[in-house]
Design brief:
heterodimer; A: seven-stranded mixed sheet; 11 strands; 0% helix; globular; B: 115 residues; mainly beta; six-stranded mixed sheet; four-stranded antiparallel sheet
């Protein structure tokens, strides 16, 4: 099973709402990633978790709060977002560890977020 | 710092014609290069990757890419494209800071196949 699942598929929220995005994998991967992708642009890395610890935060605003409750799950908590945060949010996972630089990342289908 | 340049933002071709999508990289350390494909309304999928060894790498669906160190290139080719190859293609180079992989993507090339 090489599947990464993401829920919900679509999300519309107001600027005062609190919502969460969920990502799950059962491949035994120990590295998990959040990306933001605007239309006609490449994915931009937001966060990386390695062995359930936050490894990389690409200077993401605090209104995005990641959480890795266990090795299979990755959440992204959203609060007080702005309309410019509307985008496709992609989750990915890879084996991780010392050979991580040669890893294949497996991407989920994404959550399309619209902030009104 | 590592970077990737995809020289063409859009490439239109006719079905069954050959295609080449260009990618140039910049890296001061060991180079690991990837091509990912994104079909409409989907996440990215690995197409192929170069880690070491043979400079020509192939995918299961007929694409191939050649690592050329002297020209710092990793161009993607297919001898005969199909309508189903319509997608966005991203070239990426891998870094390994702090025990996790960081992919640096190019801007992407939109491949459009015309019947």
């Amino acid at each position: 099973d090489t599947e990464v699942t993401q829920t919900p598929k679509h999300l519309v929220m107001g600027m005062t709402n609190k919502k969460s995005l969920k990502c799950e994998q059962h491949m035994g991967h120990r590295a998990m990633y959040w990306y933001k992708q605007k239309a006609k642009k490449p994915p931009e890395l937001m966060f990386v978790y390695s062995y359930e610890k936050l490894s990389i935060n690409e200077s993401v605003p605090s209104r995005f709060s990641p959480e890795c409750p266990n090795s299979s799950l990755l959440n992204l908590h959203l609060h007080a977002l702005q309309p410019e945060d509307s985008a496709l949010y992609l989750c990915a996972s890879s084996r991780g560890g010392l050979a991580g630089v040669t890893d294949t990342q497996y991407f989920g289908p994404g959550t399309r977020l619209t902030v009104l | 710092a590592q970077s990737v340049t995809q020289l063409d933002s859009q490439v239109p071709v006719f079905e069954e014609a050959p295609v080449e999508l260009r990618c140039n990289y910049s890296s001061s350390v060991s180079v690991y290069l990837f091509w990912y494909v994104q079909y409409p309304n989907q996440g990215l999928q690995l197409l192929l990757k170069y880690l070491s060894g043979s400079t020509l790498v192939e995918s299961i669906n007929g694409f191939e890419a050649e690592f050329n160190k002297s020209q710092t290139s990793f161009h993607l080719r297919k001898p005969s494209v199909h309508i189903s190859d319509t997608a966005e293609y991203f070239c990426a180079v891998s870094a390994h800071p702090q025990g996790a992989q960081k992919l640096v993507f190019g801007q992407g090339t939109r491949l459009t196949i015309n019947p």
